[in-house]
Amino acid sequence: MACQVCAEPRASGQVSVYIGASFEAAWEKLLLPWFESVATRAFENRWAVAVVTPLGSYSAFLRAKLLAHRISLLGVKFLSPPSLRELLLRGINAKLPLREHLRLLLSIAAEQAAAENDPAKIDIAKSVARDPDSFLRALDQLGAAGWTFDEIASNALRDIAQRFEKIVRDCELRFVHDADRAAVASAKKSEPRFSHLLVSGFNGAHWPLWPLLCAAVTSSEEAVVVLNDPRDEARDLDEAWVGTWEENFHAAQAIDAVAERSTSSSQLIHFLVGRDTTQQAKAIVALAAKFLGQENCERIGILFPCPGALPRLVAAYLDGAKIAHYDGVAHLTPSVFDDEVWRTWLELQEDPRLKTLLHFLRALPEKIFERLSISEVEETLRGAYADVLVDNIDVLREYLRRKNGNAEIVRGLEKIEFLPRNGTLDHFLAQTRKTFAQLRWTQRWSEIERLSGNWTAHLANSFSLRTYLRWLREILGARSLCRDEFGTHLYSRVHLLRYSEAENQTWSHLIFAGLNEETWPTIADEPGFI
To answer: Which long-range contacts link 274-278 to residues 24+ away (Cβ below 8 Å)?
Structure first.
C-alpha cells in the first residue's frame, strides 16, 4: 500500500528507534529504564511527557506494571490515537466531521450522480446512495494510503468520489488523513509539544496512523519509538513499516533478548467443552475463579474472537459473582433517544400511511386527540380508508374534511407535521425543529443542534427525505459501550479482551474462549497465535 511519509526530523539524535522480539525484552531493557528516568522528572520539563499506544488496554497494562514498580505517573499523559490527534490539531483550522456526517454527504453526492440518469452510472450511484458505508471505507483506505480520488478506475465511482470531495470542501470540513498530514506540516514549523515522547505497540496494521505518529514524533524534543519484529503472518507489511521508520528517522537498534519462562508443559493446558453458550460462560467464570486462588496468578486474560453472547454472559456471571474485572469487549446499549416513539416517528415520516400512523399514536405519550381514544380514532380512519381505498394520511384527512367527518380528528391530523420529500439540510432542520417543538422533544433537538455543528449552512445541495431520515436515525440512535458495575476495574487481575488486543502484554493465565469452527479467525499456512 502506498503511503505518504513525513520529512526528516528537526535534528539528528532526537529520535531513537528500537526493535525487539518480545515485550519482556523491551520492558526490561528499554521501557522500564525510560519511565524510571523520564516519568520521575515529568514536572521539570517545559513540555508534556506523553506515551502513545494503539489501545486503551495496552495503556492500562503499562500503567499497572509501573504502579507495581512504584513509579509515579503524575505528569505523564497516556494518549490514544484520537486524543493525540485532538492535541496535535489545536491551532490548526481542521474541522473533522463525524462518521454520520460523511455518510450523509456521500449519499448526497451519489444522489446527484444518479439524478443525471446516465445509464453507465445510475445503478452504481443508487447503490452508493442507499448504503454509502462500504464505499466510504474504501475511500478512507485510498486517502490514508496517499492516493487521490482522481485515480479511481471506475468512471462512475470516480465521479461520485469527486462530487463527495467537493461537497466536503464546500462545507469547510477535512478528512482525517488530510488533517493528519496538516499536523505533520505544522509540526515542522511549530515549537515542540512534547519534551519526551514514547511510541509503543504499533505495527503494520496501523498504516493509516503513520502521518499522525510522524507528526507526534516530529513535534517532540526527544522521542523513543519501540517496534516489534515483523510478524510471520504479515512479514512484508511489517518490514515495510519498520523500514519506513528507519528511512524517515534512524536505523532501528536491536533490543537484546532476555530469558523467558517456558510454558510448554501439557499439564498447564486445560480443554473445556460446553454444550451451549451458557455452559461455556459458566465454565470460563469457574476456571477464572480457580486461577485467582492460585499463588502464581498475576493477570488473567479471557480472550474472545469477537463481541457476542459469550463475552456478554461471561461479564454478567463475573459481575454476579462480584469478581472485579475489566470488560474490554463491553456491550452496546441503545441511545437514550432511541425509544419506540422515535422509531415510529421515523417510520411515519418515511411512509405516511395509516398503519404507521396508528403505531406512532399508540407509542406517543402525549394525546393529540383530546377527547377521543386511540381506538375511536382508529375506527374512524379505517372507515375512511374503506371508502376511498387509499391509506395515505393526507388523502384520509382531506376526505374526512370534505365529508364533514369528525372535526377533532381532522384537527389532530393537521397537528402532525410531515417533512418534505426533498430539500436542503437547512430546510430539513428548520422543519424538524418546528415538528420537535410541537412534540416537546427539546432534548432531541438540542442533541441534533449540538452534533450538526456549524457546517450545515454551507451545504446548499438538495437531497431526499430518505437520506435525511437515515442521518437522523444514526446521530440520535448511536449506541454506546457499557460495562457492568464490577467490569470497570482497569487494574484488576481479570481482563476480557479480543484476541488482537492481548498482543504485547504478559499474562500468567490465559483462557481462549469460543474456539469454535468458523468463529475464531485462522491464519492459512501458519500456526495460530496461541
So the answer is: 277/309, 277/310, 277/313, 278/313
